């Protein structure tokens, strides 16, 4: 079991998961990377549910 560093949701991961694997948080949609396996540690690659901000010049 791992936890999303963005929203702290529990994420099921396989026991034999390897460092460098990427996955998405099912709750917030953040893209995560496995940076350690014992214990499992995840880092955010990109945030989920972000809206692209566009410069609107009128």
Question: How does this model look, in words?
Answer:
By secondary structure, this protein is mainly beta. It has a single domain (2-46), classed as Rubrerythrin, domain 2 (Single Sheet). The protein has no helices and five strands. The chain has strands at residues 2-3, 10-11, 22-24, 31-37, 40-46. The chain has a three-stranded antiparallel β-sheet, with no helix packed on it. Strands 1-2 form a two-stranded antiparallel ribbon. A hairpin with a 6-residue loop joins strand 1 (2-3) and strand 2 (10-11). The chain is elongated, with a radius of gyration of 14 Å. The mean pLDDT is 87.
Structural features:
Rubrerythrin, domain 2, 58 residues, two-stranded antiparallel ribbon, 0% helix, mainly beta, single chain, elongated, 5 strands
Write a concise synopsis of the structure shown:
The protein is mostly beta strands and about 60 residues long.
Structural class: mainly beta
Overall mean pLDDT: 87
Contiguous helical run count: 0
**What name does the CATH topology carry?**
Rubrerythrin, domain 2
Shape: elongated
Please describe the biggest sheet, giving its number of strands, its sense, and whether it closes into a barrel.
3 strands, antiparallel
CATH class: Mainly Beta
Architecture, CATH level 2?
Single Sheet
Strand content: 35-45%
Question: Which residues sit in consecutive blocks of at least 5 with pLDDT less than 50?
Answer: none
Helix percent band:
under 10%
Please report the distance between the alpha carbons of the first and last residues.
49 Å
Lateral arrangement of strands in the main beta sheet = 3-4-5
| SSE order, one letter for each helix or strand | EEEEE
What kind of oligomer do you see? single chain
Number of strands: 5
